[in-house]
UniProtKB/TrEMBL annotation:
It comes from the Eukaryota. Residues 77-167 form the CS domain. CDD domains: p23_CacyBP. GO terms for biological process: response to stress. This is Calcyclin-binding protein. PROSITE patterns: CS, SGS. PANTHER family: CALCYCLIN-BINDING PROTEIN, SGS DOMAIN-CONTAINING PROTEIN. One of its GO terms (molecular function) is tubulin binding.
């Protein structure tokens, strides 16, 4: 098994040198990282069985993250306020934060998400995370640069073009188009989304409309809606 993994890694490294499209390079790099972890696991098993040298002689998997101890008990302050801009190739996120040390930054870039942690910044830990970006990025090319009074996170776009927003936002008020679907189902979904997103007055109005419709006072659930 270990020999097969070594051969796979060798071929993936070769493909990585000839690949040109950013998304393909990202996929190959991700698979190389996974195989390196599997290979490391098998080599440790071999050490325990006495087939190889000591664990200290085994090369560790390559990681793009900074060397920061990962303690699940750590608490982070969420950095929800930041600015950003873009050009045709990349997006830059600007965070106002003083006292950040480059070696105490932990990054996790994925094709559609970003998670950057800043440890021990004047005794506190901070975190900037975007669960779903507007479009895909190239994780291996992304980086974090520390300035005296701010931090710049640079995300390289997987495909050139303009982003309408930094984060992906689903249009909940836009009913889905389905020719075979009952037309009333779209209205029902729209009403449900309006109820979930609306204020207390909106919710009372919609709730009354549904109650009246069910009791037979009106056949139209939208009747009475301003």
């Amino acid at each position: 098994m270990a020999d097969e993994i070594a051969l796979d890694l060798e071929e993936l490294h070769h493909l990585q040198t000839i690949a040109k499209r950013p998304r393909i390079v990202s996929l190959i790099s991700s698979e190389i990282c996974n195989l390196q972890k599997i290979s490391y696991h098998y080599r440790r098993i071999a050490v325990k069985r006495g087939c190889l040298g000591t664990p200290s002689q085994i090369p560790t998997p390559i990681s793009s993250a900074s060397k920061v101890s990962k303690d699940p008990a750590l608490k982070y302050i969420t950095l929800g306020s930041f600015s950003w801009d873009q050009d045709n190739d990349k997006v830059k996120i600007y965070i106002s934060l003083e006292g950040v040390e480059q070696e105490k930054i932990e990054t996790e870039f994925k094709p559609v998400s970003v998670d950057v942690k800043f440890h021990d910044v004047q005794g506190k830990n901070y975190r900037c995370a975007i669960a779903k970006l507007n479009k895909e990025i190239v994780p291996d090319k992304c980086k974090v640069v520390v300035k005296p009074k701010r931090v710049i996170i640079t995300l390289f776009k997987a495909s050139k073009g303009n982003w309408l927003d930094l984060q992906f936002k689903e249009d909940k008020l836009k009913p889905s188009v389905d020719k075979d679907r009952d037309p009333m189902a779209g209205i029902m979904d729209l009403m449900k989304n309006m109820y979930e997103e609306g204020d207390d007055e909106m919710k009372r109005t919609i709730a009354k409309a549904w109650t009246d419709a069910r009791s037979g006072k009106t056949a139209d659930p939208l009747k009475g809606y301003p």
